[in-house]
TrEMBL record:
Pfam families reported in the protein's UniProt record: SH3_4
Keywords in alphabetical order: Signal
Descriptive protein name: SH3-like domain-containing protein
Signal sequence interval, chain numbering: 1-26
Keyword presence, Ligase: no
Domain SH3b: 58-121, 133-190
Residue runs in coiled coils: none
Record carries keyword Signal: yes
TM regions (residue ranges): none
InterPro entries (alphabetical): DUF1058 (IPR010466), SH3-like_bac-type (IPR003646)
Length: 195
């Protein structure tokens, strides 16, 4: 086998190992682009590599920017599979590779975003699994009790800022109103999570 044939064979083998950059599906390409080992993470608030600290996985964060590209792999050379246009949207960080974070949104879509496009600010969506169902609302109470006075009724999918969570209740703010919702009625916090 000649040297040029050998080089051509190696090049073809390398090309076959790379992920496709043609049409992409929003759900599954991230699995094909998963790097073998996760590296230490920088804090989501945009700290540089020198300010790295280990944060737990998985964890909830929110989108910082009004335009966030979701990529099929951890790098700018990977295709964009989705474009988020809503700052503050909660996402779950499920993996890290260098300064890239693999995230999952409330609908289960997964992909990679650059760390500086994420914020440590906690937000949540009011029961996104109830979207499209008639008469579905999430009750915001003045106190952390089901018999507490009602502050507001939220439709499924309303974005809230989460102030704190404990004992099954979270203090949230939405559209200028503050109150408490049960932790199981929002997406963006873990069951029994306290902060």
């Amino acid at each position: 086998m000649s040297r040029s044939s050998l080089l051509a064979s190696i090049a073809l083998a390398l090309l076959a190992a790379l992920p496709s950059v043609g049409a992409v599906h929003a759900q599954s390409p991230a699995a094909a682009a998963t790097p073998p080992v996760a590296a230490p993470a920088a804090a989501e608030e945009g700290e540089d590599a020198e300010m790295q600290r280990k944060l737990p996985l998985p964890r909830f964060v929110s989108l910082k920017s009004a335009r966030v590209n979701l990529r099929v792999g951890p790098g700018k050379d990977y295709a964009v599979s989705w474009l988020y246009l809503k700052p503050g949207l909660p996402v779950e960080v499920i993996q890290e590779y260098d300064l890239w974070r693999r995230i999952r949104d409330s609908e289960g879509t997964e992909g990679w975003v650059y760390h500086s496009l994420l914020s440590g600010e906690r937000t949540a969506l009011a029961a996104p699994w109830l979207k499209g169902k008639t008469q579905a609302t999430i009750t915001m109470h003045r106190s952390a009790a089901t018999d507490g006075p009602i502050v507001a009724e939220m439709e499924p999918g309303v974005l809230t800022k989460v102030r704190e969570c404990s004992f099954g209740w979270c203090e949230v703010e939405a559209a200028g109103r503050r109150g408490f919702v049960t932790q199981k009625e929002i997406w963006g916090v873990y069951p029994d999570e306290r902060f």
